[in-house]
Specification:
The protein has 238 residues and is an alpha+beta fold. 26% of the residues lie in helices and 36% in strands. It starts with a strand and ends in a 7-residue tail after the last helix.
Length: 238
């Protein structure tokens, strides 16, 4: 389950880039708290404490208890803005939540076990690194396990086969592959693929094929038009 972290926040006096810039120089991150039943509140939070909170096992799904004066606001951090060069936090949105209402969040998939197909020389493919789950804010799992202990060469583990819990529902397509064990590509197949990629393209032949494809529908349309015209009744004479 997601950890709960208390985070001290303070109201931000004033608005504009200048106020936000001064807050960052003081080691704080500007942000805004908003949600159902409240007016948006501009705040600042200590950068170091905020970064520490985001580096728990829950990551972005950490359940925050924002301490604003004497008020305690349950929230999730969303829409983090970072400096494109340094990667430092520039701004954060805090979404107030109701602990009794379910939320939808993305949760990482952790692969566990040793697949027999890999031991036989297969290649582990992991196309789905996270899944979307619906649950109460206090029941968000830190990760969903994908057990590949029985996965053979050429087999896949689907979303429907993921380890599920009573406290959350996985919303992804049940048939979507999460992990697959693919047969290794032989040297001959690899050489054939490389040769096909490097083969010169006959531009004249390609142009001729494109022109034929464009003309074909027009000829069919003309034939259909002629046929429809021949079957249509003659207009009545007035």
């Amino acid at each position: 389950m997601a950890a709960e972290v208390k985070l001290q926040v303070e109201k931000r006096d004033g608005k504009g880039k200048g106020v936000a810039r001064r807050a960052r120089m003081d080691g704080k991150v500007p942000g805004v708290i908003y949600g159902r039943g409240m007016e948006p509140v501009s705040v600042v939070v200590d950068r170091r404490e905020f970064v520490t909170a985001l580096h728990t096992d829950a990551g972005m799904n950490v359940l925050l208890s924002l301490q604003l004066g004497k008020e305690s606001i349950p929230a999730l951090a969303r829409d983090l803005q970072r400096d494109p060069v340094r990667g430092t936090l520039l701004h954060a949105d805090f979404v107030k939540i109701d602990l009794s209402i379910e939320v939808e969040v993305d949760v990482p998939v952790h692969v566990v076990g040793d697949a027999p197909g890999v031991k036989e020389g297969g290649v582990l493919e992991h196309p789905l690194f996270q899944v979307r789950v619906r649950c109460l804010p206090t029941a968000v799992p830190e990760a969903v396990e994908a057990d590949i202990s029985n996965l053979q060469m050429g087999e896949s583990l689907r979303v429907v086969e993921l380890a599920s819990g009573r406290d959350f529902e996985i919303l992804n397509d049940p048939e979507a592959p999460v992990v697959s064990i693919a047969a290794p590509i032989s040297e001959a197949e690899l050489e054939a693929m490389e040769a096909a990629a490097q083969a010169p393209v006959d531009e004249e032949a390609a142009a001729a094929e494109a022109e034929a494809a464009e003309e074909a529908p027009e000829e069919g349309a003309e034939a259909a038009t002629d046929e429809a015209a021949s079957e249509a009744p003659a207009p009545e004479q007035e």
